[in-house]
Design brief:
The complex is a heterodimer of chains A (341) and B (100). Chain A has one domain: Rossmann fold (3-Layer(aba) Sandwich), CATH 3.40.50. Chain A is an alpha/beta fold. Chain A contains 13 helices and 15 strands. Helix content of chain B is 80%, strand content 2%. Chain B has three helices and one strand; from the N terminus they run αααβ. Chain B starts with a helix and ends with a strand. Classes of the chains: A alpha/beta (341), B mainly alpha (100). The interface between A and B is large, with 48 and 41 residues.
Chain lengths: 341, 100
């Protein structure tokens, strides 16, 4: 009976998961970009930490559910947490380039967070493609007011990425074949890319749903995860063309040949300490795509740790709570000042 | 809580089937087939759109693609205005960031 009731409610969408449960406050916005602050009365470390992702997933994945929120865990560890949400692109963002995010919006979000927290510096924490923005911004700037950079599953060596990208790499599939009349790669194309790599994932989701129908909490977790896996963002066409050419075909990060707005930048110029967190079972950003990063940065600038998790398990679930968070907060504590400024 | 027996059976079966499928999906042949299917679907969509647009134009009506083109043009214009705003903002930056 309970299964039937929960099943009907799930299918009818009457019980959407309570994603983004952590109280937050909008402190800055520009165009569609939003900066959120997760206020806390128990801040013990300084500077504040600014979180951001890339352009594929929605920002709720870092604040997934009560008791399973990366943001809340970081806040509860004593950090003043900010989160950048890049927003959902439409025609207005079709011409946005990689630099629009890495060199325009990100530095402005940093400035806004510093101003809001009255902080001289800030720590960056970037997940997946967000790490590319963080690296590009730091490589192109002096005095960026960034204390340190933490990267979760940073994609650096695109030769090690999925074989499904081969047609885009060798030119048998052109970026414009995937860009629609709005100038965007539709969210559905992004979702199908991930779905085709796990052909049994839909069946497995239904099996898990059946298993959890009697358990309200597990059902909500299931619904939240299903939303993460299905609810992708459209990708700005100009940035997509650039990523295919610069990162996938030229492998510019790994080859140390990155040019931003016509100027060459080198990861070797990054002056702040960095932490690269690699998920050992990651099939989206395989460890091989991240592990060359310390060699591209100046000696001693990058520490690398490996977590026995997949791409998603790096930030949500038991492994994230027991392994990822202690590793990150331990490193952050070493690279932060104790006490509120 | 331990998973029920049926779930363990499913997981083993899923890995027995899913594992080889996932490895196969990553091969150049499958990637090439998916790329071809994507291009064909797009070409077919363009052809249908073109025929519909022709029919609407015969009746003196705008087609969806005409409306889209106007929307894109307006969006490009607004994007340029945004970019100019960004440049102006950079001339009076809120922080003392320096470009190399």
């Amino acid at each position: 009976m309970l299964r039937a009731r929960n099943g009907v409610q799930y299918v009818a969408g009457q019980r959407p998961p309570r994603v983004e449960p952590t109280p937050r406050e909008l402190v800055w916005r520009q165009d569609k970009v939003r900066l959120w602050r997760y206020r806390s009365d128990t801040v013990r470390y300084h500077p504040p930490v600014l979180l951001f992702l890339g352009l594929v997933s929605r920002s709720f994945v870092l604040d997934l559910l009560p008791g399973n929120s990366f943001v809340a865990r970081l806040r509860d560890a004593g950090f003043d947490v900010f989160l950048v949400d890049w927003g959902e692109p439409d025609e207005l963002e079709a011409e946005n380039t990689f630099e629009t995010y890495a060199l325009d919006y990100l530095p402005r979000a940093i400035a806004a967070a510093r101003q809001e927290a009255d902080a001289a510096e800030i720590t960056l924490l970037a997940y997946c493609m967000g790490a590319m923005f963080g690296l590009a911004m730091l490589a192109s700037r002096r005095r960026s007011q960034v204390r340190s950079l933490v990267m979760l599953a940073p994609p650096v060596d695109f030769d090690a990425m999925s074989g499904l990208m081969a047609p885009l790499r060798d030119g048998s599939l052109l970026p414009d074949d995937l860009i629609d009349e709005r100038g965007l790669v539709p969210a559905d194309v992004v979702r199908r890319f991930f779905q085709v790599r796990k052909p049994t994932s839909d069946v497995t989701q239904y099996v898990s749903l059946w298993q959890n129908l009697w358990n309200d909490q597990a059902l909500e977790a299931q619904a939240a995860m299903a939303r993460w896996l299905r609810d992708h963002l459209p990708f700005p066409g100009a940035a997509f063309r650039q990523i295919v050419q610069t990162f996938l075909r030229e492998n510019a990060l790994a080859a140390d040949g990155l040019r931003l707005r016509g100027r060459r930048v080198s990861l070797g110029d990054i002056e702040v300490p960095t932490l690269s967190v690699i998920a050992e079972r990651d099939d989206i950003v395989p460890p091989a795509a991240s592990c060359g990063l310390p060699g591209l940065l100046a000696p001693g600038r990058c520490q690398e740790i490996r977590i026995p998790a997949g791409h998603v398990g790096l930030v949500v679930g038991g492994t994230a709570a027991k392994r990822t968070m202690p590793a990150i907060t331990g490193w952050l504590e070493q690279h932060s000042d104790k006490g509120v400024r | 809580m331990a998973a029920p027996l049926w779930r363990n059976v499913y997981d083993r079966a899923e890995r027995a089937i899913g594992g080889p499928l996932e490895r196969h999906v990553e091969t150049p042949q499958i990637a090439g087939a998916l790329a071809t299917a994507t291009r064909l679907r797009r070409a077919a969509g363009r052809r249908v759109d073109g025929m519909l647009a022709w029919a609407l134009h015969q009746a003196g009506l705008p087609a969806k693609r005409d409306v889209r083109e106007v929307q894109r043009s307006l969006a490009r214009l607004e994007w340029r205005v945004r970019e100019i705003g960004h440049v102006l903002e950079d001339q009076n930056p809120p922080s003392d960031d320096d470009h190399r």
